[in-house]
Write a structure and sequence with these properties.
- Helices cover 39% and strands 12% of the residues.
- The protein is an alpha/beta fold and 660 residues long.
- Helix 2 links the parallel strand 2 and strand 3.
- The radius of gyration is 27 Å and the shape is globular.
């Protein structure tokens, strides 16, 4: 029988089997195989990895050893049993007119059954490897949840067939910006999930990743703030005076060297109409690109603050174009024009961010310029289409009384008229409090599809990139990566798939109900869901808290029961469940006094430890954080501040009383 993912219900399995034709291939029988994995004569590192991954995973599933040979060592005639890694002469011969490998778009895959053989091919950078991953997942039921946890089914008989996949993602740049997908240690899971962003440092043999020269907010990377001393005319003129400053504030060194009236603690930019600055900037970028030949994108973008130049020339362009994006795009186009001559394969990335988010009236980005639009001001309990997301329980949507993201949507649509290449910097976490629930669960796929439908070709989803524990960060990283690869995927099904496979199927409906309750509360509160919220007081009510607490208690009990009943299959389940509960318990700690006072005044239940029991609860919470390595609560609140942060919270609840 053909293997399917373990989380599918019996009805889905039967439906899939009925829809599938009878022509299947038996790849292994009784732990043996007649198939050979075939490589081109001069295989690339990616093709070698694809062949190795395919052979080793098939062996892990069935115990059968699949030989790997070059195409000159095998006969590809009728009836041959080959697993062909393309593009190659053999794959070209087998595919014939059925698929044109040479025309495959970037990151596209070809996965086809041809007679008794299978072709794994596509765009040469990553296509053959992605085709192998797709086959192992969609056809054989393998799953890679995190860098350390996966599911590989076991059977001595593998059957496959009746599939024909030719697919290319619309997003050529896909970055699920979570700690679990970043860096060399997570390269393999990032490759399995088909992400390829700058932080996902995937080695060449696994397809590599997009490499930047600089990475956003690059003005003061190229032009050093200290240069203000010799060239104040290169920097922003504000209120009639050239000024220097940055988001980090004013350094002691600068305060000693620069007159106080020339310092701006709020931050400044560059004078984008200064010709000498532009030429110097271009020369330095060229030099840095020459030293970094692997870079395919260079960021020429504003500092992470405001303070645009108000000199006569800059102000004139801003006024004519109706936006500060005018002077910025004018400057970026000049740099891009110069780089087109010296570095024709490098794209220039700039930001449409905060004060530059509004597009210009007439100016257009050059063909080699990427405009990266940022959604930082949006409310994330609504879709960008101005709706609330569909309920996980019934699929119904509750209309939003006031579309809070209308201005962003308008800017997005207008930028489509001014730039051929659109990237998005989107936000999917709460930067002021990573740990507490952030009820944007129901709008993720809607927003990804909105971006793609508005000509976005690169999407950076900034999640909790600083910790492995938070608001279901493992699930979020996995689901987001899947949506970036296939924006048309069903988000609910993806969430249920992860919850069932990573935790246990029995817990899935409980978690989905928990997510629904939190989203309902946020929507009904009437408040915007921004990305800088210190607690849940704006949207979480006592009744919803109690309902969620009951669900979390049920999940704890069920996880303990499952692990006791089958400790091998459910090893570590209770620990994972309790790790996820830290998010909900942090919300309790932050709002304990509010809930306790409301429960007392209104005579309502409060499903939490009594105040006299809270010292012990706080001590246990601290111990649970240490056990999972949780030592950061916000983007700016590092490990050095975490202990004091917890102590301050505990003090407000317990009055300083510690458990013995």
């Amino acid at each position: 029988m053909k293997l399917r993912p373990i989380i599918l219900t019996l009805l889905v399995i039967l439906a899939a089997a009925a829809a599938r034709s009878a022509e299947t291939l038996t790849l292994t029988q009784d732990g043996k195989t007649d198939y050979t994995v075939v490589l081109p004569e001069n295989a690339t590192p990616v093709q070698l990895s694809a062949a190795t991954e395919l052979a080793e995973t098939l062996r892990a599933i069935s115990g059968a050893a699949f030989p790997v040979k070059k195409e000159s060592e095998v006969a590809a005639g009728p009836g041959a049993k080959l697993l062909v890694i393309g593009p190659s002469e053999t794959s070209k011969s087998l595919l014939g007119d059925a698929a044109d490998e040479a025309a495959t778009p970037y990151d596209g895959i070809i996965l086809k059954q041809v007679g008794s053989s299978i072709v794994f091919s596509g765009h040469p950078v990553r296509g053959p490897l992605y085709a192998v991953y797709t086959f192992l997942e969609d056809e054989l039921g393998c799953r890679w949840w995190t860098s350390t946890e996966s599911f590989i089914p076991k059977t001595d008989r593998i059957e496959a067939g009746d599939f024909d996949v030719v697919y290319a993602p619309k997003l050529i740049y896909r970055e699920s910006f979570y700690a679990g997908l970043m860096g060399e240690k997570n390269a393999r899971i990032a490759a399995h999930l088909k992400t390829n962003g700058a932080s996902e440092t995937i080695p060449p043999e696994l397809g590599g990743h997009h490499k930047y020269q600089y990475f956003v907010h690059s003005f003061y990377t190229v032009i050093k703030p200290e240069e203000f001393l010799d060239h104040p005319e290169w920097f922003s003129e504000i209120d009639g005076r050239r000024k220097i400053g940055g988001w980090w504030g004013v350094t002691k060194k600068m305060s000693e060297l620069v007159p106080a009236e020339s310092l701006d603690e709020h931050g400044t930019q560059l004078c984008l109409t200064n010709d000498e600055l532009c030429q110097t900037f271009l020369e330095r970028v060229r030099k840095d690109l020459d030293a970094n030949p692997e870079a395919t994108i260079v960021s020429i973008s504003q500092n992470d603050c405001r303070g645009p130049c108000q000199c006569e020339n800059c102000a004139k362009i801003a006024e004519e174009e109706g936006s500060e994006s005018g002077p910025l795009l004018c400057f970026v186009n000049k740099i891009a024009e110069g780089l087109a001559e010296s570095h024709p394969n490098v794209l220039v990335d700039t930001l449409a961010y905060q004060y530059t988010r509004k597009p210009p009236k007439t100016m257009k980005a050059r063909e080699n310029v990427i405009v990266r639009l940022c959604s930082i001001e949006c409310s994330f309990n609504q879709t960008l289409d101005g709706e609330f997301g569909p309920s996980f329980a019934d699929g119904n949507r509750r209309p939003a009384p006031e579309p809070e993201n209308r201005s962003f949507r308008d800017d997005m649509e207008k930028w489509n008229e001014h730039a051929d290449r659109i990237f998005i910097w989107d936000y999917v976490t709460n930067f002021s409090q990573y740990i507490i629930p952030f009820p944007n669960y129901r709008i993720l796929s809607d927003n990804v599809r909105f971006f793609v439908n508005h000509n976005t070709i690169g999407l950076f989803e900034q999640g909790n990139y600083q910790g492995a524990t938070g608001d279901f960060v493992q699930m979020r990283a996995w689901v987001m990566a899947k949506l970036l690869w296939n924006p048309g995927a069903n988000q609910k099904a993806l969430m249920e798939e992860f919850l069932s496979g990573y935790y246990a199927p029995e817990l899935t409906p409980l978690y989905m109900r928990y997510f629904d309750l939190l989203c309902d509360a946020s929507e009904k509160s009437g408040s915007e869901l921004g990305i800088f919220q210190s607690d849940t007081s704006a949207w979480l009510d006592l009744d919803t808290y109690n309902a969620c607490a009951e669900i979390m208690d049920s999940i704890d009990a069920k996880a303990a029961e499952l692990e006791t009943a089958d400790p091998e299959r459910n090893a570590g389940l209770l620990d994972k469940v309790r790790r996820e509960r830290l998010s909900f318990d942090m919300a309790l700690l932050l709002d304990y006094n509010r809930f306790a006072e409301q429960a007392q005044s209104e005579g309502k239940e409060f499903r939490a430890p009594a105040r006299g029991e809270m010292p012990a609860f706080c001590d246990e919470f601290r111990a649970r954080c240490k056990a999972v390595g949780l030592n950061r609560y916000s983007e700016g609140g590092g490990p050095d501040r975490f202990e004091q942060y917890l102590s301050d919270i505990f003090e407000k609840i317990t009055g300083g009383t510690a458990a013995e």
